[in-house]
Amino acid sequence: MMRGGTIEMRCARSSCCAEPTFGRTLPVRVAPTPGEALDSWLEAIAFRYKVPIGDVMSWCGIEPTPQTTFRLLSPTRDELCRIGAVCGVGSDEIRSMTMDHYGGHAADADHWTSALWARRSRSRFCPHCLRESGGRWLLSWRLNWSFACLTHRCLLTDSCPMCDSAQRRQPLCRSRIPQPGCCPAIQHSGPDRHGRPCNADLGAADVLRFPGRHSILAAQATIQTLLDGSRTNFAIYGAATPPCKTVLSDVRALAQWIMCAVRLIHVDSYLPGDLSSALARQRETMEWPLGPYRRGARIVAPAVDTAAGVTVALRVISLPDHAATVLTLQRLMDNADNGGPYRTPFSRRAGLSPALTAVLDVALAADKADRKLQSRIARKLAASTAVRSASNLLVR
Ligand SMILES: [Zn+2]
Ligand SMILES: [Zn+2]
């Protein structure tokens, strides 16, 4: 707690040690787990010391505002130093628990969020990981790119199994002692209508498992490699190996368009049966195609949707030659919903690579020619039907 500009800390044995100490490292060190996010670690510290999260934030000199879910993932330099001094962890290790890990900086948030397709408002999670780690939350789950757990070979889940609330959408109330692994969403139920935390065990959520070799897991592994900055070659780029950001940008644009505009029945053939069935079940419960991928929409796509879109997109850019890529894109376009969502991704080409742009141009031109031909045939058919009807009338 802050008092008169000093840090007052209760030690782990707070019941026997009431003396406040100034600027001291916490007596009992809570080690971060591999891949853990900073907010999760600070919550684990609060849980260990049985104090509200607001107390830990005060010890670490973290300003209480602005209160956003990303606040604890983008600390300032001063806060980083203070957290390191108080919690006894090096600043590099702390930085690896923030969005800086992905090459971004808080001051440049707009740039990296668009490049990394970050999720600002909520987080997916793997219930098996939560169970095994005692509720520690991984940093990678905060990105839209994370849709499957490679350790447990399963799809990530999007919400609490009990109340269906999205997780990490609201910052924890500063006066609450965190309960790792439990749903903190406030439920207003019961006769008094007072808000109480749901507290459901998030580790009990049911998720789709992927046995054996599976294209969804392969797609997630590829994305992970790209996010780690390891350049990977894809056929669409020929001999060149573009920067990871460029590939991610291409995959994102394709995935968004495919899942936004192409009807499920036409994407089916590119997906494994179990994911395709899960996608069909999920589509029954949501508005489509004007759903998650619509430009400007604040709705975040469910894990199953992202998994499908990214898997098909990676397949498209991995096809052996340009002719095959053009043909596949043309087929997808042919089966696209011919409305706003169909055109939207292609009108925003700023981040696309020249290789994908060139293939798209050829596919779009072929698609346009096809549509013109189809409408000419339709007009001729309509005209000949009209002539036949008129001559039938004359005969009578
Ligand atoms: Zn897992
Ligand atoms: Zn809940």
Structural notes for this entry:
This protein is mostly helical. Helices cover 44% and strands 4% of the residues. It is built from 14 helices and 6 strands. The strands form 3 sheets. The chain has a two-stranded antiparallel ribbon with strand order 1-2. The chain has a two-stranded antiparallel sheet with strand order 3-4. Helix 1 (38-49) crosses helix 2 (53-59) and helix 12 (322-334) crosses helix 14 (354-395). The chain is elongated. The termini are far apart. 36% of the residues are buried. Bound molecules: zinc ion (ZN) (2 copies). One zinc ion (ZN) binds next to loops.
Please tag this protein with its features:
396 residues, mainly alpha, two-stranded antiparallel ribbon, 44% helix, disordered N terminus, binds zinc ion
Let me know the largest β-sheet. 2 strands, antiparallel
Number of helices: 14
In percent terms, what proportion of residues is strand? under 5%
The Cα radius of gyration reads 26 Å
Please count the beta strands (DSSP E, at least 2 residues each). 6
Average predicted confidence as pLDDT: 80
Query: Which structural class matches the secondary elements?
Result: mainly alpha
Q: Ends: how far apart?
A: 97 Å
- Enumerate the spans where pLDDT stays under 50 for 5 or more consecutive residues: 1-22, 105-113
